[in-house]
């Protein structure tokens, strides 16, 4: 037991500075960050921090990728009473200040299995859409 304690004390652990950890994590795509939350408690704390999360929209605006927006159209079938939602996207390259039309691309259509009892408001938070009692991820 004493020998193992001495060995542990003799080992020097190299600690990566916090600002360097943040810089490394900032360069990773969001999907990788989700996987890397299990690497260590410090990485999980960094990735879940509000300042780190808020840095993503600003970082994506400065990159050369075109801006995109998501359009969701709700439709209720009068016969079945079921709600469907169609998703469309458009990039900033199709937006023009001189044009009044926008070209969009159809992504998908979701028909919800439950009957719609009342009209629901939809909310968009951190990439997820909430429509009444249903939460969906339009990216998948």
Rg: 23 Å
Measured between the Cα atoms of the first and last residue, the distance is 52 Å
In total, the number of strands is 6
Helix content: 25-40%
Encode the helix/strand succession as letters. HHHHHEEEEEE
Count of structural domains: 2
The strand line-up of the biggest sheet is 1-2-3
The best one-word shape is elongated
Instruction: Compute the average pLDDT.
Output: 71
Structural class category? alpha+beta
The number of helical elements comes to: 5
Quote the beta fraction: 25-35%
Instruction: Describe the main β-sheet briefly.
Output: 3 strands, antiparallel
Which segments are poorly predicted (pLDDT under 50) over 5 or more consecutive residues?
Answer: none
Domain F-box: 10-56
Protein name: F-box domain-containing protein
Organism: Brassica campestris (Field mustard)
Task: Give structural attributes.
140 residues; elongated; alpha+beta
């Amino acid at each position: 037991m004493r020998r193992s304690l001495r060995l542990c004390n003799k080992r020097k652990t190299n600690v990566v500075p916090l600002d360097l950890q943040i810089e490394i994590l900032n360069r990773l795509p969001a999907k990788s960050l989700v996987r890397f939350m299990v690497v260590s408690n410090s990485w999980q704390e960094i990735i879940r921090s509000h300042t780190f999360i808020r840095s993503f929209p600003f970082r994506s605006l400065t990159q050369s990728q075109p801006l995109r927006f998501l359009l969701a159209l709700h439709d209720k079938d009068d016969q079945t009473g079921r709600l469907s939602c169609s998703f469309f996207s458009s990039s900033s390259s199709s937006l023009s200040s001189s044009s009044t039309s926008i070209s969009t691309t159809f992504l998908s259509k979701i028909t919800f299995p439950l009957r719609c009892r009342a009209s629901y408001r939809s909310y968009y938070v951190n990439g997820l859409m909430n429509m009444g009692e249903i939460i969906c991820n339009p990216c998948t």
